[in-house]
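Q: Convert this sequence to structure tokens.
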Amino acid sequence: MRERIMYEIEDAIFLEPKIFDEAIIGIAYRFGMEPVVTYDRTIVIDILARLMTREEAEEFFEYNTVGSWMGILTPIFVDTRPAE
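A:
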């Protein structure tokens, strides 16, 4: 998926390390804006939870990932869990 995205978005911004590539779900096309890499929020947190507690992973994600602005190509995160 990373290679296809790099072909479509010249300056695509990805989460590093590449272990997060398994959470990529595609490209988001937003009206009037550049397309960006899109990640599944739950899978990103699951990956982080392999390295820390679930609570720490959620806090780390909210503060260090969602809270990071890397310019107009900053990736977005989608919650794909079914509504309860």
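The chain has a mean pLDDT of 94.
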